[in-house]
Fold this sequence. Notes:
By secondary structure, the chain is an alpha/beta fold. The protein has one domain (about 5-160, about 210-245): CNF1/YfiH-like putative cysteine hydrolases (4-Layer Sandwich). About 20% of the residues lie in helices and about 25% in strands. It has six helices and 15 strands. It has helices spanning about 45-55, 125-130, 135-145, 170-175, 195-205, 230; strands spanning about 5, 15-20, 65-70, 75-80, 85, 90-95, 100-105, 110-115, 120-125, 155, 165-170, 180-185, 190, 210-215, 240-245. The protein has a six-stranded mixed β-sheet, with no helix packed on it. Strands 4-6-9-8-10-14 form a six-stranded mixed β-sheet.
Amino acid sequence: xxxxxxxxxxxQFPHVVFGMSTKNGGVSAPPYLLNLSMSVGDDxxxxxxxxxxxxxxxxxxxxxxxxxxxxxxxxVQYAPTPARYDNTDGLATDxxxxxxxxxxxxxxxxxxxxxxxxxxAGVHAGWRGTYQKITIRMLQLMNERWQTAxxxxxxxxxxxxxxxxxxxxxxxxxxxxxxxxVSKSNGKFNLDIPAINKEQLISAGIKSENIEHENSCTICxxxxxxxxxxxxxxxxxxxxxxxxxxxxxxx
Length: 251
């Protein structure tokens, strides 16, 4: 059975469409299962069926997708049309029926909604993007385009590699404040990417009560999530998607 993660916060707004896939419910053979990526060695026809199952479950027209070709950068951009956006890790739009994608298998997916200006964003935050404050760059883009005030934003942080399992070398750990890393006996460190991003969002002005976090580790939750760190090149990919439906205000 397909498991789709939802947001309690976003669900308060009927015109906001949101869902996050897991590894369960697809047609691909193990270990891929509900894999949504064409670039990980899975059978392309199975991936097409998996995507149809996922988008149909959310009642999304798959011709209306805006997807970034993620490169672990801090580059974000406006998406006025459904299309492929090269060399970017974050998209934002205020257009109806454009659905923004984020693909992950350990990195942190971050979704933002400005209910005042009806603008949305999706961000792919790995350690590089986190270090370069990609979520802050997205907030700046939203403010420049729509005068979005961080205090009014609602945020969702999806499942990602957790501090329990996300091991990095000292050269990466040293990029972040000590409170976000745990020293290990092998000279490595465990890094808390979700906590870093959450602090960045709060420091930018987003209210802590407006931040929802699916606090699950993709690495150790093998029964639910794809993980590149755990499974290597045989890992599938999950997707989160957010969009705005057309709606008519009641008079």
